[in-house]
User: What shape does this take?
Amino acid sequence: MLAAAATFPRSSRRSEDNSAARLKRADLVRAPDPRCSYDRVLHYNPATSRREMDRPAPDCSDYKAP
Assistant: This one.
């Protein structure tokens, strides 16, 4: 499973106050977010009859809708 996260504008995050930052034209791009981009392997667990990740996903609460 591959999850690729991106931010727009480049330096913006929902969990931080971005109002003081002055944006430049170069900031108005979609930029990859390595903190929330990850690659995991799913394995079938016969005890639960579910597929489970080989290790937990990082905390990406900035990308979840409230």
About this structure: The chain has one domain: 2-55. The chain has a mean pLDDT of 86.
